[in-house]
Amino acid sequence: MQRKIYIENMPLDEARQLWMNHLSSIGFCSPLTETIAVESALNRITSKAIYARRSSPHYPAAAMDGIAVRAADTYGATERTPVVIKPDHYVEVDTGDYVPNNFDAVIMIEDVNYENNGVSIIKPAVPWQHIRSIGEDMVAQDLLLPSYTRIGPFEQAALLTAAVDKIEVIAQPIVGIIPTGTELVNYGSVDMAPGEIVESNSHMLAGLCQQCGALPLRHKIVADDRKQIKKAVLEMIEQVDMLVICSGASVGREDYTAVIIDELGELLVHGLAIRPGKPAILGSIKDKPVIGVPGYPVSAQLVFHLLARPALFARQGISEPEEVSIQCQIARKLPSHAGVDEYVYVNCARLPNSYYAYPLNRGAGITTSLTKSDGFIRIPRGNEGLEAGELTPVVLHRSRHTIDNTIVCIGSHDLAIDILADLLQLHYGIRLISSNVGSMGGIMSLRRQETHLAGIHLLDPQTGDYNTSYLKRYLPNTNWKLLTLVRRQQGLIVKAGNPLNITNLADLARSKVRFVNRQKGSGTRVLLDFLLEKENLKSENIYGYNHEEYTHLAVAAAVANDACDVGMGVYASANVLNLDFVPLAEETYELCILPDLIDPEHFELLIKIIKSQEFIERVTSLGGYNLEGSGEIRLSSQ
Amino acid sequence: MQRKIYIENMPLDEARQLWMNHLSSIGFCSPLTETIAVESALNRITSKAIYARRSSPHYPAAAMDGIAVRAADTYGATERTPVVIKPDHYVEVDTGDYVPNNFDAVIMIEDVNYENNGVSIIKPAVPWQHIRSIGEDMVAQDLLLPSYTRIGPFEQAALLTAAVDKIEVIAQPIVGIIPTGTELVNYGSVDMAPGEIVESNSHMLAGLCQQCGALPLRHKIVADDRKQIKKAVLEMIEQVDMLVICSGASVGREDYTAVIIDELGELLVHGLAIRPGKPAILGSIKDKPVIGVPGYPVSAQLVFHLLARPALFARQGISEPEEVSIQCQIARKLPSHAGVDEYVYVNCARLPNSYYAYPLNRGAGITTSLTKSDGFIRIPRGNEGLEAGELTPVVLHRSRHTIDNTIVCIGSHDLAIDILADLLQLHYGIRLISSNVGSMGGIMSLRRQETHLAGIHLLDPQTGDYNTSYLKRYLPNTNWKLLTLVRRQQGLIVKAGNPLNITNLADLARSKVRFVNRQKGSGTRVLLDFLLEKENLKSENIYGYNHEEYTHLAVAAAVANDACDVGMGVYASANVLNLDFVPLAEETYELCILPDLIDPEHFELLIKIIKSQEFIERVTSLGGYNLEGSGEIRLSSQ
After folding, report:
1. Residues B49 and B162 both lie in one domain
2. Domain range holding B95?
3. Residue A323 DSSP one-character state
4. Is residue B421, in this structure, part of any structural domain at all?
């Protein structure tokens, strides 16, 4: 008797309110505490006021090296009438030593003259001079740290000094994480069958828990079986403060989570008006909060961020760290579904007139959109999206410093760009972000002044020259410089051993040959079309001509994994995947740089890296590259 | 044959340059690396570029639940002319499933009509629709993470997905810490003799190491014995990347460190033109850096911050996090020694017209100046200090949010203020910082508009009334409100059992009685002087009349520790230290609040706390308090 659990479309604010109220009602927002050693309390938070248990110093202490005396014994001392103090009327002290309480002053060693029958003094001591009084630093029963103080190294030192060796702190919430899905396999599996997916979400969620001060407890993978999932939930709920169930990506499967929560506890919400992350589930079992997160990684982390994170901070009685955001111009139009709060991950960079945000691939399965991103844009419900150039806040999770030290490269893709990015980071701490939108896309970004540079390789079929005619046409009144990055082999990427014996373009039209193309506007597509026309070949006759990939490596991977038989791309991408290659042409891949937009020092270091032996060697080792002239400015607009 | 090692006074910049050059020359700035599991790599830093080892998806994957077909089989399908696909010409797929490579499109389950002999379709499929292509997220050999990327949860997920289970990361530098000093004892010692000091510096330095990404290795306490220190240094230098020796506080003793470095390696610097921290030592042994830090905690952490920290970041090949600072008006004159770079720790708060910085006790032994502080002011060499009201940058180590949520209370001390502070933090996340400068000091701060409120208890000897006449005189054209905090018992604090049988003020003048006074300008001092005059007693006859302490607890501690026999203060401070008390008067302790300066919400919550049962109970339990009328506004200026 399985009850049907409908998926709602609840607005986020409403769901959050319901959720936080429910958490309060089940007692989740009352912090638990534990007593731990101060020595291992770094970064923990005090749960109540801590009072000093011993004064420091706990005795009157000499603040100088010298002698302790009674000030009254020194009265009247002058250079002409020195006072001699007998050995039983003073005691030698070093800094920090106890000043016995029959003395009330310390005289610096520099002012003491040793004589046969004692010491002579030529200046009277002021009572209590050079004595640190008891409790100068802290007095027993002083309030040392109020409630909710985060323990740092200074606090540790002060506590130990105050004879407080153990303290009561907020307990770290324990979060159980159950990955479910028959398609999931543990990482480390060498040969994965098609349809198998590495279970990485539970590891990501564990890291996110740690960032909230919580302790994650990962369950092993549970197959898509209602009984097994229920068993895992019932076992784990006893050991944790909160449970996160990672559902499979499919709607049918994740319903188990909602059904089980409904059966064992209280199902609060199933389905949020957010994107990604819609199939989120909120509820509780045995008065412990349970969250169901969708299977796609971008959705999973977003649901955690929006709902688990605030709950975990509330559990610890502390407020969520405030969001840091900057205003950015959005580099391209971002349509949005009016019915949902939409979250779009972006890269950010600083250009002279504004910060820019560059939207990343919005697919919920694109983990690399998370690793690349600097933050996200939130497009609220009721809003149909953002126009290109519109100013919008970006909530950052990377430092402003990184963003300020970023070079943006939009345009065509080449493996040498990645090596350039790595070496700039390695040697100069400069980040280079690249967006692969093809050469024409790069030129349009230059035209809109929203990138520092573009990688381009556009053949002019009339002249046989690369790039120049396009720049003159699209960047007429612009200051630009054209820098040679590499020359490279373009050709057909075929399976190892070339089983279909593809030797020229005409072979693409053969009936059993499956081709994969590059996207419109890419230099490689321009080159292909030029070559097809030259040989009078028709694209309609090529199966897969409309199947587009966005990078050379994606084309090579499609061939390697038998998604197709042949694609066009650079030699290097065939080489790294151990595929065969049929050369068609050598072409020039250049960087078009806008000197008015790029930091002059960044420009200089960019050229320095490209000319470096390390860059030349790493690119050469990929194969199919010619680095003659690399790093030279071939042409300037002015 | 002990060589004399002179203490220099080297400017910090010069020392830092010498030090960093030396570190480079001994190879310290070349990061070491290690290979670790991605699962335990959270917060670590990649030492080289990481490339994907498997594409994701590594197979063409269904992006929807539905059926996989050949698009060509669906051509021509319309509502009027549906196309029927036979069972051997399609396959059912769920989201994420493998789409076998004889199919090239997925049709959503909603668009599929099951029939007896197959499925019927009323719309043709576009080739490659609803299929995630191989490598949509990442392609094998894609640059996944460049060098020097910090691993977060997103990076962990991406690495595992990319079949990268282990990565090469920057090794954490190991820092040896040797505490030296015959006066030192381990924390946990219950009864400490006068002259013994808890060894807390090594724990503080260990925490500071961790904050730099280093691993601390603490040695046990070593006595002030050259042979023993040398033995510890030689043993430890083999196990670590850097060595920190915590010297004793006295100049004579710390010389061992310099002598030993000079003997075993290279002594670079002994003595810096900074304050605190002058006796710092820099050098190397067996090509490993060695730092000698002074024994006072404030000096120790400053030398670590200025010299060990940059070295540890350099060791890891990353730049030090940038300092965050805010411009503050300095609340009082800060004289400085022109010959040194001086570091002064301060509290900060926001007042309507400016941020203010309140200097804390500058003693190098005052650990609580570190725990209280929000940051420090750097007064450069050649500068003789800052005038009150001068604008100066404060380098923050606490969040702006904390500073913006701070109420400042300057004036007299009362234990109830600490309870108020704790409850404001506990219930509302508002910080209350208090500075104990006595009632008159508080009134002067109100007059200069640099505090939100002041705690005052000033008796007017003419009228017998508290506070009013002072406020009228010193805050003539100011909007103020006077709020009752507590009424409390003032009297003489004497040892338990009152061994000297002190029963009234006249007894203070007895020959064997050692008194301790409160500072000038404090309400308690005003009360004492009033009572002495009333009884015709002369202060010159009281031994210790000029011995001043700054809080009630400090007076009580002086009595408890036999630094004196009697002092004047509130009943509660005698009570918490189990001392006896001779009552003299009940007085009113009030808060004078400037409504134009304090956040209205803060003001409201302050009153709410003072009137709360929790506040009343905690204060009452201290003894000697009367909370009738607490939280009521007794008087307003307007």
Report:
1. yes
2. 61-132
3. P
4. no
Contact by Cβ (8 Å): B260, B233: yes
* Residue-level pLDDT at A146: 96
Q: Provide the number of structural domains found in chain B.
A: 5
Within a domain: A6 = no
Who contacts A275 (Cβ-Cβ below 8 Å, separation ≥6)? A337, A340, A341, A342, A343
> Does residue B469 share a domain with residue B563?
yes
| CATH classification at residue A397 | 2.40.340.10
Q: List pLDDT tens digits, range B489-510.
A: 999 999 999 999 999 999 999 9
- Band of the pLDDT at B2, cuts 50, 70, 90? very low
Assess whether A470 and A614 both reside in one domain: yes
Q: Which residues contact A477 (CB under 8 A, 6 or more apart)?
A: none
Q: What are the tens digits of pLDDT across the range B524-535? A: 999 999 999 999
Nearest to A258 by CA among A182, A180, A176: A180
* B471 belongs to a structural domain: yes
- Residue B2 is assigned to a structural domain of this protein: no
According to DSSP, the β-strands at B566-570 and B515-518 are: parallel
Residues A473 and A618 in one domain: yes
Which among B65, B138, B200 has the least Cβ separation from residue A252? B65
Task: Return the CATH number at A246.
Answer: 3.40.980.10
Q: How far is A478 from chain B (nearest CA, A)?
A: 32
* Closest residue of chain A to B322, computed from CA coordinates: A401
The whole-angstrom distance between A130's CA and the closest CA on chain B is: 12
Contact yes or no for A555/A568 (Cβ under 8 A): yes
The amino acid at A142: D
Q: Quote the pLDDT of residue A6.
A: 65
Please name the residue that has the structure tokens 């909160």.
Answer: A242
On whether both B268 and B253 belong to a single domain, the answer is yes
Tell me whether residues A98 and B194 touch, CB distance under 8 A.
yes
The strand pairing partners of A293, in sequence order, are A246
Contacts of A156 in chain B (CB under 8 A): 200, 203-204, 207
> What is the Rg, in whole angstroms, of the alpha carbon atoms belonging to chain B?
35
Q: Dump strand ranges (E) for A450-513.
A: 453-456, 481-494
Q: d(Cα A523, Cα A280) in Å, to the nearest integer?
A: 42
Q: Are residues B189 and B303 in the same domain?
A: yes
Measured CA distances, B135 to A569, B54, B58, B139, B199 (Å):
16, 9, 6, 4, 57
Same domain, B261 and B230: yes
Report the C-alpha gap between A540 and A454 in whole angstroms: 31
Q: pTM, whole model, 2 decimals?
A: 0.94
CB contacts of B136 in chain A (<8 Å) are: 363, 365-366
Of B58, B141, B248, the CB nearest to A576: B141
B549: chain A residues, CB-CB within 8 Å: 133, 135
- Tokens 């050598």, residue located: A586
Tell whether B463 and B601 lie within a shared domain.
yes
CB of A202 closer than 8 Å to CB of A159:
no
